Every structure is written in structure tokens, then in C-alpha cells.
User: Fold this.
Amino acid sequence: MHAPLLHGLISAWLRVTNANNMTTWIAHGSLLGWYWNGISFPWDADYDVQMPIADLHKLSRQFNQTVIVDFGTSNSQEVRLGRYFLDCGTWVSHRGPGNGLNNIDARFIDMDSGLYIDITGLAVSPITAPERYESQLPAELQRPVGFNSSRADPETEFRRNMAGHLYNCRNRHFSSLQEISPLRLTLMEGVPAYIPNNFTAMLEAEYSARGINGQIFRSHTFLPRLRLWVPSKILSHYSQNIQHQAAKQVDLGDHVPGALEHVDKYWIYEFSDQDYLEMMNLEKEMLFEYLVTKDTTVIHQEEMELLLSDQSTEDFFFEDGVFKHKLGHLRRDINNYMAVKQHREFPEKLREYMDMYQSYKKGEEYVGSDQLPIPAPQALSPIRLQSPGQGLTRNRMG
Assistant:
């Protein structure tokens, strides 16, 4: 259920920042989700993005405590009803962790669900950078062998970070200029977005090689043929015989869980098209997700083949200077999504709300077609119905 909400969140955020000439890119767990199939992990309930400190300041000055309403784009053929609130922290100029209780600079919040995007800004600071950047520093600023970082001088650390073009957020996540820049254009959930230049090195540093190679995580398994993460319990029916045989033929001792994970991994590659069809016939949600995401994930797979072989993606994304992948919204607006799931047409739902309003206006109890009686409220404020405008609008609070 949260997937349409998250899609609306990231779409609105990318459009807001693009319209206001602010730089932002996908980061952390969201970047790892992009790496696998170009969409967010099914278990993720938020997004992570980063931006330069100057753009974070601009965002805070112009839009803090602002409500942003997303009615969709003129070419999407769908009216969207997203409402988002931007909440920027007080200490957006500080890159130190402070008391460690809040390392997020700002949040872009879905007002209807409470889901959000975590926003962090990067800047040079006196925080000690990880050892992996040591070789990028001038010889006179490199640390001696056996250096005790707990005794580091803040002024020296600031000079080191300036010389190495090393930037960090308040949560001590470091990135170098050559890792970030130039940003790469990509598609995140079918929406044009940016990712760091050397995304592979950054993901390995944060999640280790297992993060970009391990195909079983958070009780989900990645299916290469479908390009989707699916609950591992769905696959247990198809792989339990192999698991049983592996456990019986070899005494693995304490290594059984790890060994069986590898058995599962290799077994996945042996799935035939018939196996996938049988699974999706039984698991309608898997079939639905595959049909929704297949066009987006195919594009991502082709893009990754170019990126991982150090080839340019310019011709892949552009033709005569025009961006050529126009997929529309990957997921429908949550209100339209629920209407389809509940088999309710918009005019029918609108009539229901108007009937409810008239009942409340008369002080009567309202009984819907599929719900318990709703008592009338004690007092009513006038309701003014307005026609939705085009695109994004904002209303500053306070």
C-alpha cells in the first residue's frame, strides 16, 4: 500500500527541486534500491536524498514550513492529489552530530500518510574523515602510521577535508567530490533523477560488497528474471526440496543457514519461464507488481549494463538532445489507486462525499453504502469547493 505514496513523494520532491534549480541526488538505502532495479525496496518506508549545503540553505529560506500541493503534470493524463509539508531543522549550518539525537536536516512529508523523505546536506567540516580517503590528500596532510584519530585537531581536520574535497552530513557519512561529481542522470521509479558519479564505490563503502551482490535480504529474495524483490516465503515452496537434499547430503554444522542461502540463490537462476508463470498465477500481488514495474525495470537493466561496463548513457537517454524515456507515472495517485482496488469510480465517490456533506449540514446521521453509520459532528464550518489548478502550488504555514 505504501508504494504509491512513496512514488508520489519522490516524484513531487524531484519536480520541486528541479523547478527551483536546486541540486539533489538519491542516497543511502534509496540509492541501493535504485542499484538493483531502479525502484525502492518493498520494505523501505522512506526515501533518502542529499544536497549541497548551499542548496539546503536555499531550500530552508524559501520553502521551510511550506505546504506543497501536487496536481500532477499536464502530460500525465491523471489528476494527482498529493499534499506535502517541508520541515527544515534549526541547525542546518552545523555538520557535527551534536547530541546525536537528530542527524536529519529536513523532511519532505506526505501529509496524508506521514511517510517522508529524509534530506541531508553535505559540506566541509572539521569531522575526521574515514581512512579510505587518505591517499587523496597531499603528502604533508596525510596522517602518520598509528595515528590516534581521537586526538585529532579540528583545524587540521578541516584543512585536510578542504584539500581532499571531502564532505559530510551530520551523521558522519562522507563523500568526496570525485565520488559525487559529475552527477549522473538516471530514472528513479521512472522519474528523471540524479545519482552520484561513483555510486558503486559509495555503496560498497556503506553496505559492503554484500549490499550490491547479496540477493537475499530482509526476508526478501531478488528474482533476476522478474527484476523484483519478492518475499522469500513465496519461494520456499519451490526450493524446499533442494534445501532438504543439501542439508541431508552434507554435514554443514553451524554453516547450514549460509549454505542454504547460496542454494536458494543458485536455484533462483534455474527457474524456468514455466516456474515464474506458475508462481505468478498463485501470487497475484507478484503478478501485479511485475506488470506495473516491468517497463521501468527493463530500462534500468539496460542502463546498468552500460554503467557497469564504463559506457556513456547519453545516447541511451537522449535523442537529438531530447529525453526519450517518457514513461509517465509508475504508480497512480493513491486516491485513484484505491478507487481501482475498491472498484469505485470517481463520480460515485464524489456523490458519496456530497451526500455525506448534505447529511452533516442537516445534522443527520450518514450511512454509506459500505460502512457503519457516521454520527453528524456537533458544529460545522462552511466548506468551499474549488477547482484544482495545474501542477504544483504551495502555501506557507504560520
Observations:
- Residues 241-250, 372-390 have pLDDT under 50 and may be disordered.
